[in-house]
User: Which sequence fits this backbone?
């Protein structure tokens, strides 16, 4: 790959046809409402993954496996590829412009993360002379429904130029079963100023909602004249053509607007989109671009991270923050953060436990309390679905889905669907984390208590009493380490289950009699819950001084991952699934996930023994893994390991470390770079008030970041020998810096 290191940009200076899908992923753009991969406007006959996605628009694709298993999901929910908005057919002297077949003299592709502008510049050779093209676009942060494109062609010779901007809803998903399509074409319409089409997701037998999407476009051209229009089934285009003299430039500005029935009645969508498209043309590309760029700069003001002395690390964390902010804005409690965001279709595009475990603490810090609360409300609004999922297993309480759009489980792997029950604990921990970070303890007694009650009831019923051991156990689970399925007594699952039950019991005791009555919680039920939590079984090994990942983990052939031949890494792309399951190798933090979440309950010696035992066997083939290890390594003083894991999480996609970025970015794990910086290098802890314990990586000259905390804005800056904390806004605050209690009124410093 030929991507340059730049603190604010992703830059590619060569056309790499072999890795086109990877390049498209890395130059994806979005605005929280919709987004698209870094596809070309013009036609490209080579390998590509065309993708435009709209938040909350999905389809229930029929599940093809597990049909005989009672309780198995009937469908696999998918974020579906929507109408192509940016397309422009380009012809020069009657020949279609296609970079796969053209003689490309130079090529430049850039994503400016500071402004959210995606631009390409390239020069083509022909027998008549060279042709220069500049293509620029943005998915507007200032107007969520808008995509704007500016496309310019400059020939060195007199040339006939034709540009046919279009909208095309005849699209497929990359991962659809048997090339199924998901859209019905309803109508195409035109006004003097614009063209529009209306589509709707197909009927389904599962009672899942259908979504109507209206897209409209309006264009302006300089150096070309409009010749005509085409309206076909799910397709509209306008033709512009003209003779362009040598050295002159023909420019097309395209404005595409997209509205959905999630926000407006289907009957008005087409009219709205047509009017909005015409209005965008009136404003013009330059004005819309300026508004968009200004909004991006404003967003960066509150969350930028500055790293001095390591441009690769700087680029990595800004890239990750850019993509997170492009994926979720907090404006709509119905939306969440899919693992691939708007950059691809893998994992179905739905909500995983990643949001609560990794994204929530970042959004609390960089976007503030209100945005973070929206993420919690998303789960509260889907509580009925979680109760349904538990009933599918014949259990009480609420089982939050591993994958969902509605609250109903829609994943199509049993091991994940119904065994990976630890995700309930991540949601409980997120509620606790939110309350202790923001000080909004009222949430625990309101919506939070509803969720905690369902979680506690599920875990209590899912556990069973072992008469032989005199302990409660949880069998038949998959822990965070998905390279082991259907194990008994996964330490992390048992631990987070007991902790979640105890958290609910503690909050229920504080609740009023009326509130407990609302939940139908009796003292007998609380008594039983307390017993389950107090007598949960945890596999341990006293000789090694560690928590055992599950009952039989130590019976495996234990060896460090360093012994795996490099040619066989990653193992998930080289080994059979059977071989992986039998091995000792760990996909991601498992026991260590528990020591990260419940860090305040364990002393450093316990954490060190477990880290030293498990980290060498961890292959980090989940994108969620490196940040947890970075944070714990920093806490233990393993600074080189902390930096190594930071680099892995910060540059996972930019360097394609897991060799799987071609089908989309790892959006949710991108939160890990900020967590590694703040919770790791800066040692931030918030369970018992704000505490910081910074260190500076040896190769860095310094770093700085700011964050929201309980109505305040705080900045942390670290350089050689010195850590400083500044109160940028808000009331004075008591905190702990490097083990010393301080009052922050303006700025405090501490030698490190």
Assistant:
């Amino acid at each position: 790959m030929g991507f340059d290191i730049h603190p604010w940009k992703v830059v590619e200076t060569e056309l790499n046809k072999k890795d086109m899908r990877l390049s498209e992923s890395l130059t994806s753009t979005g605005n929280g409402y919709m987004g698209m991969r870094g596809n070309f406007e013009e036609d490209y006959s080579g390998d590509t993954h065309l993708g435009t996605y709209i938040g909350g628009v999905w389809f229930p694709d029929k599940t093809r496996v597990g049909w005989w298993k009672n309780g198995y999901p009937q469908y696999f929910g998918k974020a579906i590829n929507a109408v192509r908005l940016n397309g422009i057919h380009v012809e020069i002297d009657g020949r279609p412009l296609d970079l796969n077949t053209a003689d490309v003299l130079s090529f430049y592709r850039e994503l400016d993360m500071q402004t959210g502008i995606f631009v390409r510049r390239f020069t083509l050779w022909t027998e008549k002379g060279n042709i220069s093209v500049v293509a620029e676009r943005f998915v507007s942060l200032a107007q969520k429904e808008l995509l704007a494109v500016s496309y310019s062609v400059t020939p060195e010779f007199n040339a006939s130029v034709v540009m046919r901007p279009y909208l095309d809803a005849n699209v497929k998903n990359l991962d659809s079963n048997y090339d199924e399509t998901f859209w019905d074409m309803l109508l195409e319409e035109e006004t003097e100023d614009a063209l529009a089409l209306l589509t709707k997701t197909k009927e389904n037998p599962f009672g899942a909602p259908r979504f109507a999407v209206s897209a409209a476009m309006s264009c302006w051209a300089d150096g070309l004249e409009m010749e005509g229009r085409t309206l076909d089934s799910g397709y509209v285009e306008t033709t512009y053509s003209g003779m362009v003299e040598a050295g002159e430039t023909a420019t097309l500005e395209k404005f595409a607007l997209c509205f959905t029935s999630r926000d407006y009645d289907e009957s008005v969508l087409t009219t709205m989109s047509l009017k909005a498209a015409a209005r965008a043309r009136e404003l013009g590309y330059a004005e819309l671009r300026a508004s968009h760029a200004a909004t991006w700069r404003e967003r960066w003001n509150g969350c930028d991270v500055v790293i001095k002395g390591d441009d690769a690390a700087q680029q990595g964390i800004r890239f990750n923050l850019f993509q997170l902010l492009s994926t979720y804005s907090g404006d709509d409690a119905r939306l969440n953060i899919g693992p691939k965001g708007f950059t691809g279709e893998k994992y179905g595009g739905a909500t995983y436990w990643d949001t609560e475990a990794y994204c929530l603490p970042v959004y609390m810090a960089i976007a503030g309390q209100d945005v973070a609360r929206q993420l919690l409300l998303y789960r509260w609004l889907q509580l009925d679905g979680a109760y349904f999922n538990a009933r599918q297993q014949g259990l009480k309480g609420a089982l939050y889905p591993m994958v969902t759009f509605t609250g109903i489980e829609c994943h199509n792997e049993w091991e994940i669907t119904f065994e990976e029950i630890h995700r309930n604990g991540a949601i409980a921990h997120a509620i606790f984390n939110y309350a202790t970070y923001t000080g909004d303890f009222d949430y625990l007694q309101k919506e939070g208590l509803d969720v905690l009650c369902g979680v506690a009831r599920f875990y209590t019923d899912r556990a069973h009493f072992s008469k032989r051991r005199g302990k409660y156990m949880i069998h038949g689970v998959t822990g965070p380490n998905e390279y082991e399925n259907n194990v008994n007594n996964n330490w992390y699952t048992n631990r987070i289950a007991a902790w979640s039950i105890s958290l609910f019991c503690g909050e229920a005791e504080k609740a009023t009699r009326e509130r407990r009555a609302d939940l139908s919680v009796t003292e007998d039920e609380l008594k039983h819950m307390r017993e389950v939590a107090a007598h949960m079984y945890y596999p341990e090994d006293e000789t090694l001084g560690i928590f055992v990942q599950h009952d039989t983990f130590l019976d495996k052939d234990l060896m460090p991952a360093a012994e795996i031949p490099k040619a066989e890494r990653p193992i998930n792309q080289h080994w059979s699934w059977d071989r992986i399951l039998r091995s000792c190798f760990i996909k991601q933090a498992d026991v260590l996930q528990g020591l990260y979440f419940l860090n305040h309950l364990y002393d450093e010696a316990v954490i060190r023994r477990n880290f030293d035992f498990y980290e060498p066997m961890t292959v980090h083939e989940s994108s969620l893994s490196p940040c947890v290890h970075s944070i714990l390594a920093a806490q233990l003083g393993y600074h080189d390991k902390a930096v190594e894991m930071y680099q892995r999480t910060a540059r996972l996609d930019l360097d394609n470390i897991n060799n799987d970025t071609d089908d989309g970015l790892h959006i949710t794990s991108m939160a890990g770079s900020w967590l590694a910086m703040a919770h790791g290098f800066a040692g931030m802890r918030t369970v018992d008030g704000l505490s910081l314990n910074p260190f500076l990586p040896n190769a860095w000259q310094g770093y700085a970041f700011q964050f929201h905390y309980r109505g305040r804005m705080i900045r942390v800056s670290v350089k050689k020998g010195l850590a400083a904390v500044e109160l940028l806004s808000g009331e004075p605050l008591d905190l702990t810096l490097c083990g010393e209690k301080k009052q922050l009124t303006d700025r405090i410093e501490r030698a490190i």
User: Anything to note?
Assistant: The chain has a mean pLDDT of 96. The CA atoms of residues 534 and 685 lie 26 Å apart.
